[in-house]
Amino acid sequence: MVIKIGEAEYEVAFNGFTPIVFSRCFTAPKLDANGKPTGVYRPKDINESVGLLADSLQSYGVPAMAPLLEILYACIKTATPKFDVPFGDWVKALPPGTFDLQKGDGWAADVIKIVEDNFFPSASHGVATKTTKKTSAAATKQPK
């Protein structure tokens, strides 16, 4: 899959290696028993960013920008392992229009689709289909 941001096009992929790529690219502070940072960092899990995306979409109706960019970056590095631009430099080089999430068909929608397909596969099609099948099966049963 190719995602276009401004004039740049990025080959992206999501597979079993993507969470490993993600945890190699991003870190999070370790917390002590009281929830305070210890000064030590741990690899960040991709599920943390997926959770932040889901929370922001549910609470505010828009995706959180940082997790969206982190997931996109990991997908780019999965598809192109030799992509060696550091995350901060890559984000700084993105065109200003990149951060306008009002475009429903832009790169953000593509990344959200990747997240839905890989973390919530039954949410987009499976749940409604199963419910519909059960309902129509129940509706067609005739009493004996």
Salient structural properties:
alpha+beta; globular; 6 helices
The oligomeric status of these chains comes to single chain
Q: What's the gyration radius in Å? A: 19 Å
Label the overall shape: globular
| Average residue pLDDT | 86
Termini Cα gap: 53 Å
What does this structure look like?
There is one protein chain. The chain is of the alpha+beta class and 144 residues long. Helix content is 54%, strand content 14%. It contains six helices and four strands. Strands 1-2 form a two-stranded antiparallel sheet. It has a two-stranded antiparallel sheet with strand order 3-4. α1 (18-25) crosses α3, α2 (46-60) crosses α3 and α5 (107-119) packs across α6. The longest helix is centred in the last third of the chain and has 20 residues, at 121-140.
Task: Map the helices and strands.
Blueprint: E1 2-5, E2 8-11, H1 18-25, E3 27-31, E4 37-43, H2 46-60, H3 65-79, H4 87-93, H5 107-119, H6 121-140
Antiparallel strand pairs: 1-2, 3-4
Summary?
It is built from six helices and four strands. The protein is an alpha+beta fold and about 140 residues long.
